[in-house]
What we know:
This is Cytochrome b5 heme-binding domain-containing protein. It is built from 13 helices and five strands. With about 350 residues, the chain is mainly alpha-helical.
Amino acid sequence: MGVIGVSLIVVSFVYVLACPIGWLPRWIVDFKRGLGGAPAITEGPLTSTAKAEPGRDEDARDNTATSTARDEAGSATETVNRKAQGSREMPPPPRPMTAQQPPAIKAPSLPESTDEEEQITPKAAPAESKGPVPTFSLSDDAPSKPSRAPSASAWASTMPSSSSSAMPPPPRPNPQPPRLPQFPAANSPQIARGPAPDRGPPAGGLAPPSGGLAPPPTLAAKPNKPSKKVMLQPGRSPLDWARISGPSSDLRNLPPNTPYLRVTPSMLKAQNGRKGTDAWMALNGKVYNISPYAEYHPGGKGELMRGAGKDGTKLYGEIHPWVNYETMMAACLIGLLVDEPDGKRGSEMDEMD
Ligand code: HEM
């Protein structure tokens, strides 16, 4: 009997070792793994946790070792019964796809620390190895080394032109400034009318204005003549005259508090600036003493004295009608030009002119 029992035990061991794993119950498989046999292939669905948990694997080994010890201490009959039970339960054949399953998440190399038992679920590691940080290049040249994220230009150059999903590069800025369209337009009626007619030089002999418009007819035109202005002595500028001929000045050269005089033509003729007398001149019915102004006259003393002792209205108007004599000569006002008492004013005035 002892020999038979030992033989059964030996046969059971041989069967367990030689039998396909898929036909064996789980605890025998675990037992075989504990003996260092083929890697365990579970019957149930493969899960990454089952294959990637070394902690559980170690637990299984512990269970297997416990079972082994229990088996060794058990009787041969129990072993035979378990063998018979395993024979009756026909497990499914091993899946051929098991070996072709994609690699599951690689189990991280956990450090051999004391808290290994607490960390049951390992952290998944990235499938790809960490490479260098991709570099970006903005130059149009091809990148010297391949990078994971190429530059925009390199990407655009590598993209096929026929691809509809490729975004075209932005247009380059136009170096030339935009040009305005022709004005007037080619079909404009302004061109149909032709060029503007030549209306001749502007009236008055003035330089043609830039705007092409003629001066208003009410503006008196300045005669286009050479200037007859003279060099004035120092202190005899128009500004100096304005300073000495203010509203409170009296340049009549008459006795103080003398009222405005009624100047007859004979009186005016006698004031011609000769023989030490002042020169008077009538302008539009008013008589002025022009002697104080002679050194300030821009046209010179000689030109001014052409109207001394006379009615210079016509002469004055021929040269500079724009000059405001009433303001300039207010301090030199003698009085009003009146007719001769005997009615000779008209003929005398004609002679004076
Ligand atoms: C009280 C009477 C007069 C006053 C206040 C006066 C005033 C002036 C003034 C302010 C100017 C400068 C004008 C300018 O810069 O455009 C001037 C210029 C001139 N005046 Fe008189 N004037 C008087 C009478 C006369 C008379 C009677 C004559 C000649 C007969 C005369 C002949 C001239 C001449 C030739 C010029 C130079 C014009 C030029 O070439 O620009 N002036 N006068």
